[in-house]
Each structure stands twice: as structure tokens, then as C-alpha cells.
Amino acid sequence: MDNYKNIANKTSWKDINWSVFYAAWGGWVLDGFTTFVYAFIDLAATDYLLPATGISLKLTSFFLFAFFAIFLVGWGTSFIFGPLGDKYGRIRMLTLSIILFAAGSILSGLSTNAYEFMVFRFITGLGIGAEWFVGGTSVSEVFPEDRRVMGAGLFHTGFYFGFLLAAVAELLLEPFIGFRGMLILGGLPVFFIVYIRYKTKEPEKWEKVKQIAGDKLTAKESLFSIFRRGYSKTTIVASIVMSAVILGLYSGTVYVPTVIEDIIKTFVFKLPIVDFVAAGGSETAVFTIIGCLLMPFLAEKIGRRFTLIFFLLLMTVSVFLIYDIIFYLDNLYYLFLVLPILGIGGADFAVFTLWSPELYPTEFRSSGFAAITTFARYFAAALIFIIGYLALLVGFGHAVAYTIIGFIIVIPLIFLIPETKGNKLPEKILSTKSEKK
I want to staple 179 with a disulfide (CB 3.0 to 4.6 A). Which of 44, 129, 167, 414 is the partner? Predict the structure, then answer.
């Protein structure tokens, strides 16, 4: 059923628990800000930290990837908050996750060498990773069915509004506070979000399951359930597909500021680099927000599978053009022409914000969402280390362009994930004995 037909006769926007949405969305904004702040200052931070650690600057390209890989390992480890979110509640885990990533970001800004920086980037990733799946699960459970699809799109815009704020901070603040100040800035708004979450109640769907299941609703049961009959294939396949999506973000989108800085350096006359970097980041963020708002309508019209494929194809084309061609042409004009395609393609993440909660029932929905969005990080982290090594051999641009191979490989696998267009969120209380076999 089309969730957008006769919507005026259905639930009102006033029926939605907006406090949960604002808490989840606000945290996702801060996550996006913290993630992309690093994208703007990664080169400056690396150029400082490597000599301070006694490491040659010849390894800069490798460590640009290595720092992101460590961040992804932290994100992968955040899976532990999935089962805990099923047992103890979504909002509690949201609060804990944002405290972790804020602390990690502030400590990253205080790092004195590359090794400390890696540890604190791991902590940052640990907190940021939990924010997506716990926040996305919460939003899916508080929106009525006829509004839920749009709610997923609205929620996911938060990450890219954070990207936009990071671009503004890069333009207005970075020249004065440097890379350390930018990283510390990413952790300061935590106090506001923690206050909001303290005032926010758990989603009613989870409260109902908790009341009925009682002590039977355990983190262990939640974890095992996503690998039982009917869910194991979905969990494994969706995680593999997510690996390619993650690789596209953390080796494609995040390195756009680095590309701009490199191109600007080739110009004979001086230009304000920070202005162009901020403009490129803002353009990418704006078009990704557009893609997130477009996603719900596409998902209802052509289904979850083909919507994801559409965005992956946009990522394939844009990453190839930017890193394999434009990067070596040193042409800023061409880059800004292609960034809208990359931006809209970045909404591939938003599809999982909608799709993942639809694949699992309330009792282990957080664990399922967590598995899809975190297990893939370990695989992506390993690949990013490989890409970092390739950058030393074939060059930065060509190495990043290789990530499109992942998009092409996983597209057929998408058809192994259940199509949930028109379905309601699955609801049941505890797994049956047949499912445990």
C-alpha cells in the first residue's frame, strides 16, 4: 500500500513522539559534524601528528586511510549497543553513545602523537556507530506506519546537516582555532543532547515488548536471534552490501576536501583554500540531504532494492569521475559539476535507515540494525588499509577509484534481501522453538 495516498485521512503529524525524533536526529547531526570535521582537517592533523611521532611524511597517504580505518574498527565494535538497546532501551544507549563520541572527539583534539590519536579515533567511532542504528530504530518505532517511511528520510538528513555545519565551521572557525579546535568543537554540544535524552521516554513499541517479555528479553537472546532461521541470510547479505556502501563514504565522499586542497595547490596564483573546501563540502551535503528526502518516495514507488541500486549507480559514476579522472586533470570546475551526483548518491545510507528496521521484529530490531551497520565496518576497515597501501603504489586518486568495484559486486546481492515495500514493522514477542533450531 502506498503510504502517501490519502494521507490527510490518516494519522496526524501531531501523533508522533517528536521528542524521540529530535533526540535521535540531534545526535545524528552531531555525529555528522564530528565525522566530517575530521574530513576537513585530516591533512593538517596528519601532517602534524606524523613528525610528532617520528614518522616520515612520505607515509601521509597511508595514514590518511589508516586513521579512518581505526575509526571504522571503533564503529564496528559499537555493535555491542545493539543487544543492549534491545534489553535496556533505545534512549539509554543513545545517551551513552553520544557521550562516548563526544569524549573521543575532544580527546582527539588533545592528542600529541599518532598513536594517541588512533586510540581516541577508535572511541569516537565506538560512539558514532551506535548513534545510527539505535537512533534509526527509535525513529522507526515512534512514527505511525503511514508516516514511518518519510520519518526515516527525515532522520537521515541529520548526518548531512552535520556535514553542512562542519563546512560552515571550516570556513569561519578553522583559520582561527586550527585542527585541534575543530575536533574539540565536535564534542562540546553533547551537554544539550544529553539533557534532551534525559527528558525523552522510550518508544512505546519497545516498552510493550519489555513489559510482556520481562526477564526473557536479554541481550544474549537478542544477539542470537538475528542469526536464526529466517534472519541469518538477511543479516549476512545485508552486512556485505553495507560494506560497499561504507567504503564509498569513507573513501569517496569524505576525501572530497582532500581532493579540493590538492587541486588548489596546483594553481600558480593564491586562492583561499578554505573557501573552496567549505563550498565543496556544503555542495555535497546539500545534495545528499536532497537525496535523503527523495529516498522515501523512490522506496515506496520502486521498492527498497531498486532505490538502493539507483543510489549505488550514482556513487559508482561519481567516484570514478572524481578520483580516476578529475583528480588528475586538476580541474576544480569539473569537480563542482560532479559533486551533486556524489551527494545524491550518498543517500544510499538513508535506504538502510528505512529498510533495516523492517527486517527484524521489535524484540531484536536494534541488534539486527546494529549487525547490518557495524559488522561491515571491520571488512571496510581492512579494505581501507589495503587502499592506503595502494595509494603509495598507484597514487591517491586511482586507489580511491578502486572502491567502485565493491558497488558493482554487491548489486546482485541486493536481490537476496527481502523486499519490504508496503509492509508494516514486524511485531512478535520472543522467538518460537522452531526458529531456534
Answer: 44
